[in-house]
Amino acid sequence: MLLHDIKKSKGYNKKSKRLGRGSSSGKGDYCTKWIKGQKARSGGKLPIWFEGGQTPLFKRLPKLKGFKRQAKLRKEYSIVNTGSLDLKDEIQDGDEITKDKLADLNLIRKQDSLVKILGKWDLSKKLTFIGIDKFSKSAKEKIKKSGGEIK
Question: Has this prediction a pTM greater than 0.90?
Answer without folding.
Answer: no
